């Protein structure tokens, strides 16, 4: 498993076409559409760290995705083969004692699909 590294933002973004939408716009259909139209990287919507860490991982054979759910609510849906190493997970720490970003990055169940994790302006990547 690759180690978590900090990256120089200019090197990370140079020469790439990126979809980085505002809140509640980075769901799976928009990310897949952006990739279809040539995006190199796509960002997820911002996800509160506690929701992601408390979610259950479910393989969705109908949609060919991996879903992270709490009860009936889908916290994150990843089109694993189509998005592999092309999406950046945006995580927002819970204001009252959220887990540090290393906790999210070390979640092996999430880490294997993503290219990078963004915490505000700080980008951490795995490649």
UniProtKB/TrEMBL annotation:
InterPro entries associated with the record: Aldolase_TIM, tRNA-DUS-like
One of the record's GO molecular function terms: tRNA dihydrouridine synthase activity
GO CC terms of this entry: cytoplasm
UniProt cross-references to Gene3D superfamilies, sorted A to Z: Aldolase class I
SUPFAM superfamilies, sorted: FMN-linked oxidoreductases
Taxonomic superkingdom: Eukaryota
Name this protein carries in UniProt: tRNA-dihydrouridine synthase 2-like protein
Species this protein is from: Ascaris suum
Lineage: Eukaryota, Metazoa, Ecdysozoa, Nematoda, Chromadorea
